[in-house]
Amino acid sequence: MPDPSPDLFSAWQQHLLPKGALTRLAGALARAEAGALSHAAIARFIAHYHVNMDEAAEPSPQGYASFNAFFTRALREGARPLDAQAAWLCPVDGAISQLGAIEGDQIFQAKGHHYSTRALLGDDANRAQAFQGGHFATLYLSPRDYHRIHMPCDGVLRRMVHVPGDLYSVNPATARAIPGLFARNERVVCHFDTPHGPMALVLVGATIVGSMATVWHGVVNPPRPGHVRSWDYADGQVRLTRGAEMGRFLLGSTVVLLMPRGTISFNPEWQPARPVKMGEAMGSAQAT
């Protein structure tokens, strides 16, 4: 009998982990302002993950009161110039997990795995309909990455939904092993109107991701009440320009972008596993 794949073994281990308890503990530790202990832990994290602090507005570990402050650190001015010609900007630092066409309502996750737009959006069939046959990009943020999320284009916020779910890791190995991963994990779904049509920007939670936050709401989770929560926004109540910060993660996770059919031609250099930086060209407006 062949040995089980490393991906399946990793998934099996995660099934057994008390992911909720670990996440709550990580959140409490990340919020703690423990002085020299926090500074030492941050310095060790920087060294272990080879975090480039030359890009940070505050390069010293001693400049952060807590892990939360470090994880959500700002970059120095000019560290991420916005591509002036791109209709669509990359919203995060990270790596491309997958991207391409939505086949009907099916989003490609990894070899052998798809999931539906409706499931990703919290079983919202009406809003999922806008992305039938559209385009998607799944971007993975590792622990070493900059953890703020920015707008790929101008947008007017219409709705935000917090969908409860699992807290599996979202690293590439788990994506290959667990069916429907991004539609199973906890997530915050943000619906925007843009010059290109509707856009869904989905922040996917993961193990020990203590919280997700948006600039208009603040921390969305915790609390984790175990049921779907939603907020609607009046026309023009929240307007964000291309490149503006829209949210942030505590530790690494994944962003999934959904766009309607005929709205983007992806940057031809973009391929799975390619590193990306916030502000670079994600794509151009699709020629009609």
Give structural notes.
The chain is of the alpha+beta class. Strands 2, 5, 7, 8, 9, 12, 13, 15 and 17 form a nine-stranded antiparallel beta sheet that branches. A four-stranded antiparallel beta sheet has the order 6-14-10-11, with no helix packed on it. A three-stranded antiparallel beta sheet has the order 1-18-16, with no helix packed on it. The radius of gyration is 18 Å and the shape is globular. The chain has eight helices and 18 strands. A hairpin with a 3-residue loop joins strand 10 and strand 11. The mean pLDDT is 88.
Task: Please describe the topology of this protein.
Layout: H1 6-16, H2 19-31, H3 36-49, H4 67-71, E1 88-89, E2 94-101, E3 106-110, E4 113-116, H5 117-120, H6 125-129, E5 135-140, E6 148-150, E7 155-163, H7 172-177, H8 181-184, E8 187-194, E9 197-204, E10 212-214, E11 218-221, E12 229-232, E13 239-240, E14 245-249, E15 254-259, E16 265-266, E17 275-276, E18 281-284
Antiparallel strand pairs: 1-18, 2-5, 2-17, 3-4, 5-15, 6-14, 7-8, 7-12, 7-13, 8-9, 9-15, 10-11, 10-14, 16-18
